[in-house]
Amino acid sequence: MNFKELLSRAKDDDLQAKEALLERYKSLLLKEAIIDNVFDEDLYQELCVTLLDCIRKFRI
Amino acid sequence: MRYRNNGQGEDNILQNQFTTYLMTAIRWQKIAYLKKRTKLGKHEFSTDFDSAFAQMMEVQEKSVVSVEQPVLDSLVLAQALSQISDRERYIFFARALEKRSFDDLAAELGMGYKGVAAVYYRAIQKLKKEL
């Protein structure tokens, strides 16, 4: 499945597509959630929510 | 793992656009999160009560009991003195032993002349009652 298809399906509230996107961006989110060499779980949670927000708001 | 695709083709362009979009959102989210955390940190009480208590006692000792307590030969007097508060004891010693004026003490403790005098006489009364 290519990215466009995945994104549009995720925008249509497809849970599997959302999961796939989250899986793809997981490493990036994990990396961004590290503050002062300490992994911040709360921040990771917030960033996951941000990703889902972005999927919803992003216009193809 | 490749962090960036080669940007060729519609699909890759779209993915790069989305990633950039996401990165901007993440940056803002992080700033907001850190702000919130520092704000909370300022209002939070430390749960480390032991060290907080020790610190408080230290500050109190520094501010109040700077007068060296004279050696007391009377056990009764010592007991009576232990009944009054730190501030009363400090003012009592400073007045009775060092002959300092109320004005002087008032300026040092940030109280009024009458306030210091009242504390002093109250201390005397308490001591009389104890003895």
**What's the helix-strand series of chain A?**
HHEEH
Uncertain segments of chain A are none
Number of helices of chain A: 3
Instruction: Describe the oligomeric state of these chains in a short phrase.
Output: heterodimer
Secondary-structure element series of chain B: HHHHHH
Task: Name the beta content range of chain B.
Answer: under 5%
What can you see in these coordinates?
The complex is a heterodimer of chains A (60) and B (131). Chain A has 60 residues and is mainly alpha-helical. Helix content of chain A is 73%, strand content 7%. Chain A contains 3 helices and 2 strands, in the order H-H-E-E-H. A two-stranded antiparallel ribbon of chain A has the order 1-2. Chain B is an all-alpha fold and 131 residues long. At the A-B interface, helix 1, helix 2 and helix 3 of A face helix 1 of B.
Structure in a nutshell:
Helices cover 73% and strands 7% of the residues of chain A.
Keywords:
heterodimer; A: 60 residues; mainly alpha; two-stranded antiparallel sheet; 2 strands; 73% helix; elongated; B: 131 residues; 74% helix; 0% strand
